[in-house]
Design brief:
Elements (H helix, E strand, L loop, with lengths): L17 H22 L1 H6 L1 H13 L1 H20 L2
């Protein structure tokens, strides 16, 4: 009897990747800082909640976030360097 080998493909979980955590951490700090600067102590006390939600969302879609940041940087540089 002949044995057939079945390959097991490992599907990567997007949450375990290093890029996810880098994007999520940067988003969390940025949003929490924005909430703190905008709303003062109330933003510091409660700003971690929207920061956590946005960090998870942006972390899942990190390639899109990086692409949008690159486009935004190119547009800003275009208008700064244009004379």
């Amino acid at each position: 009897m002949k044995t057939v080998k079945v390959h097991q493909y490992r599907v990567k979980d997007p949450i375990t990747g290093r890029r996810y955590w880098i994007t999520a951490a940067a988003t969390f700090v940025g949003v929490w800082g924005f909430c703190t600067l905008t709303y003062g102590f109330l933003g510091f006390a409660l700003g971690w909640m929207p920061a956590a939600v946005l960090a998870v969302i942006f972390g899942m879609f990190w390639p899109l976030v990086v692409l949008l940041l690159m486009v935004a940087a190119a547009v800003i540089l275009f208008f700064i360097l244009r004379k």
